Amino acid sequence: MDKVYVIGRDAIPQFLRLEAGEQLRMTFVALPGTTARLALEVEIAGPGCDVDIAGAYVCSGSDDLRMNLLVRHSVGGSTSRQLFKGLAGGEARVEFDGLIYIAPGAQKTEAHQESHSILLSPSAKVEARPQLEIYADDVICSHGCTSGFLNAEEEFYMRSRGIPEEVARRLQKLAFLAPVMRRLPEDLSLELYESIS
Predict the structure, then answer these.
(1) What is the SS3 assignment for 59?
(2) What is the chain's mean pLDDT, rounded?
(3) N or C: where does the chain have the smaller number of CB atoms within 10 Å of the terminal CB?
(4) Which residues contact 151 (CB under 8 A, 6 or more apart)?
């Protein structure tokens, strides 16, 4: 299953259960002007499953985006990956709560979760809480998050080669979101591209 959803626009399932050998690939997008909540639980109930979830957001003004994800590995022998990247400007508020749960006996599980954001204004706020809850000892798991600002050295490098400041800043934003944008259909990728100033 390969699905793309626009948060606040599309109907998004709240619970999905995967049986042995099934694959799930989902991508979420939040465009400027979004005040919404994403709540998703994925249960991996059989071995050999592969879950790949990604998301990109561009929040500005007084946007309020809250994302709650739970990936539950009820049995072993499956993999899951989560990658969320976003830009927050204006007075936007973004929350990311992600939990990877590894059940007792779910050996040979591999699960990774990442949340990365760039703050475009001092009044924007991003809170990320990636979490692992592991009850098996033969697993490979990781989680992490970063928040920061556009890289001044990268901007200087581009400007020293004749790229105007606004173009340099836009290129940085696009490069940051590129790992998720390349998963999108062309029309939605263009809509996200045009929302980045």
Answers:
(1) strand
(2) 95
(3) N
(4) 172
C-beta of residue 23 within 8 angstroms of C-beta of residue 53? no
Return the closest-CA partner of residue 147 out of 181, 114, 178. Answer: 114
- CA distances to 12, 40, 72, 99, 188 from 103, rounded to whole Å, are 26, 18, 8, 12, 37
User: What is the residue-wise DSSP string for 126-195?
Assistant: EEEEEEEEE--SSEEEEEEEEEE---HHHHHHHHTTT--HHHHHHHHHHHHHHHHHTTS-HHHHHHHHHH
H/E segment holding residue 12? none
pLDDT tens digits for range 60-107: 999 999 999 999 999 999 999 999 999 999 999 999 999 999 999 999
